[in-house]
């Protein structure tokens, strides 16, 4: 009896010591002061004196952000950043929205095409007029601007299209770039003849790349001519069923021809990457962010990005847009420190490290940056203004995109007709509006 | 008389005082959130500032009529719960018997079968989604390829995706359930077997008439955990299939998270959570009643 | 004695050999996924891409070294230890204490309490994360060790009290009875008599609770926001980017996360069955 008592008490003692050490080494989140906010002017060029900690919720993993984070600490040694990450898509959105709903949103966070969800709820701070915003081009700032209020600073300009293995293309006798959908189909046949899978796409529910080239077909067929489609959707003048179905049907011919297959639904990005980098698949969907990882997996990979070509000859298109933006939580208790992050990410020192990892374009005026050579072939299409990302402009982007994703997957698994996809998206749009 | 009552109460209190820490913590972290969810389910809150109004049971009705997401996901979840529970019982009992027999290395084998339940569901899910991918590099497909079988779309085909989920669950938890049965097996008195043997029973009959009935406690426990676990399943399904293709493998928790948090329909999602809780409650109450009646029949 | 021993102890061992072989085969199949993961952690990224199944062409430890650095191994490991240790420690005392009166005293209150705790098994935590977040926030438990430890203890009560109360019923009442007559308070009886007798099931509870706490992902993700508090699973998650994941490092991190539990499990696995055998599974 005495023995067990001894053991228990020594256990508790050790435990108590461990515990106090643990508590002592915790972040001093309870020490954040609010006094600094009162005396600060709107411009945040005054250095923040007291040590503060801000919580940053990121869309990019730590491995990609680390350089920028380290550079920030050098410039702002008084500000500690607690880095949190959620994977692109549902994981990030769920995490962010849960925290916000509980009144515990992060101090700085990333917003993307669904930024209006956050703006509508009042989570995003208006930073219009702050000096560092003028570092960016106006078009870029427009992406997160509503009624004269500025809700974020842009990070990256991204673009994506077809990535093709040049060596395999040569082998198969495929000529690049494609001028029309027929060229693409012919190329697929040529690849099949030399025993290579023509197209690899991550159609699994976690990746949902199944949509990408369908979007491109829609851009090629519709958006190249119709510049008001998105605002018409918002105002109710037109519907997805009306506008998108013809293009979707064109895309669907690829399913009939066996270029898009249902086994794509069982693959995620990692597996498609593996097939692409080892030459088992000739073409895949990818963007500026993909090159870095592919080259690491296979330095000998000889690839290039080319635009998609639609049914009409010459109707090329890419997906492109302003990617993510940094935003400050309007209810943050550390507004000044949070704004410091935005300030820092408006400079080359903050943005370029990330730019290198992502191979993206950035919108800092007058700042030069390098892009991987594999992206050169697509740049003219971009310059011609043929890059689109309409979902960033829809009022109910999240609901519509969600429904669209589900619908197209059902189509690929044979459970839905392609003609019904537009209607499904309209239904989602309507029910989101009537809340 | 009153004095006796007071004395009794005092006595009870001196016992119940031991319960207080657990009740407090359990109530705060398990019950309070559930009540919070119940409260929210009667409102139309959408994550904004606290301007919401009460809408009665509108959320409950809408959840199952406006779109079929919740209905489908309940269907799927119940299916998974039923199939895995039945298969766990069918597989874990013979496994337990074998692992409790006189073959060598039983301790090692028990550990090996139990081990898949040890890593976190997130890690296991990612591991398996890798292995089951329909790509030619998918581990399972590569092995099948050696036998001349063309790659199978394990996680992308709506029907096969279910099969994959169930197989992964069986892989992960059969050993865990077997351990519960082993514990029960070891407490069956030898005399019963001796008596049966004297009566001329062979091994199958011994099993049927001695072992199986006496395994009721383990069965009750195993089924309880299997059902409650399966109804709440999420991580492993999301990691394996993402709920897809489309909504083919949506489970209730995923639907709740998607509709509630992602799409902002908090009231409706909370209604679905309460319904989920009630469904689990009803199923387990029925199950426990059935099993306890069986147990009573034994003694 | 087991059913098989009863019927086959006199017979020849042929069936035994066949059975052993079959079981061995099954074990190999079961453990195959782990082989797949582990073998790829020792390959370079190219090797892993081109030859996923075979043994490494050239064994490299670079992936592990990188993984250790990226996931801040020693800090996340010690965070896991701290959280798990205290969760388990307090769970044992709190849940065994609660189980004692519930199992021993047949009152309406106690039947209700038994049901109350078991219903905790039916609460879908992920479905109520927002109310849970609000609760944690109002008690200032977010982003702290003590907060999440209390959360784990609270949500673990359902399972642990269930195990404990099943066990308590199998302890013979006489000792407690005589202690009661001698005038001992129930608390004293619990602490000095019952708790020591519950060692087998305590071991089981320790193993189960440790595994669950160590591996927990969702609560850790939501409530451990400071980088200083990150656990190993969170470190793994932080590095899974859908757009450019470094898979060789990632699977190493996964292995490193599993390893400590694996070792713990090897040492403790016999206690699981022992505890369950000694009484919990008698209903």
Question: What are the SSEs and their pairings?
Answer:
The complex is a heterotrimer of chains A (435), B (299) and C (283).
Chain A: H1 2-24, H2 35-39, E1 52-58, H3 62-75, E2 79-85, H4 90-101, E3 108-111, H5 115-120, H6 138-142, E4 145-146, E5 149-150, E6 153-154, E7 157-165, H7 166-172, H8 181-193, E8 197-200, H9 212-223, H10 229-235, H11 240-256, H12 269-277, E9 281-287, H13 290-297, E10 303-306, E11 308-309, E12 316-322, E13 325-328, H14 335-344, H15 348-358, H16 376-383, E14 387-388, H17 397-412, H18 421-433
Parallel strand pairs in A: 1-2, 1-3, 8-9, 12-14
Antiparallel strand pairs in A: 3-13, 4-5, 6-13, 7-9, 7-10, 7-12, 11-12
Chain B: H1 2-16, H2 20-41, H3 58-65, H4 69-99, H5 106-114, H6 121-131, H7 139-146, H8 158-185, H9 190-198, H10 203-214, H11 216-231, H12 235-241, H13 252-262, H14 266-298
Helix pairs in contact in B: 2-14, 3-14, 4-8, 4-11, 4-13, 5-8, 6-12, 8-11, 8-12, 11-14, 13-14
Chain C: H1 3-8, H2 14-41, H3 45-50, H4 62-70, H5 73-104, H6 108-118, H7 129-138, H8 145-168, H9 174-181, H10 186-197, H11 199-215, H12 218-223, H13 232-238, H14 247-277
Helix pairs in contact in C: 2-14, 4-14, 5-6, 5-8, 5-11, 6-8, 8-11, 9-10, 11-14, 13-14
What does this 3D model show about the protein?
The complex is a heterotrimer of chains A (435), B (299) and C (283). With 435 residues, chain A is α/β, with parallel strands linked by helices. Chain A has helices spanning 2-24, 35-39, 62-75, 90-101, 115-120, 138-142, 166-172, 181-193, 212-223, 229-235, 240-256, 269-277, 290-297, 335-344, 348-358, 376-383, 397-412, 421-433, and strands spanning 52-58, 79-85, 108-111, 145-146, 149-150, 153-154, 157-165, 197-200, 281-287, 303-306, 308-309, 316-322, 325-328, 387-388. In chain A, helix 9 packs across helix 11 (240-256). The longest helix of chain A is centred in the N-terminal third of the chain and has 23 residues, at 2-24. The radius of gyration of chain A is 25 Å and the shape is globular. The termini of chain A are far apart. Chain B has a single domain (65-298), classed as MetI-like fold (Orthogonal Bundle). With 283 residues, chain C is mostly helical. Chain C has 2 domains: 3-60, no CATH class; 67-277, MetI-like (MetI-like fold, Orthogonal Bundle), CATH 1.10.3720.10. Chain C is 73% helix and 0% strand. Chain C has 14 helices and no strands. In chain C, helix 6 (108-118) packs across helix 8. Chain C starts with a helix and ends in a 6-residue tail after the last helix. Chains in contact: A-B, A-C, B-C. Chains A and C meet through helix 1, helix 3, strand 2, helix 4 and helix 12 of A and helix 3, helix 5 and helix 7 of C.
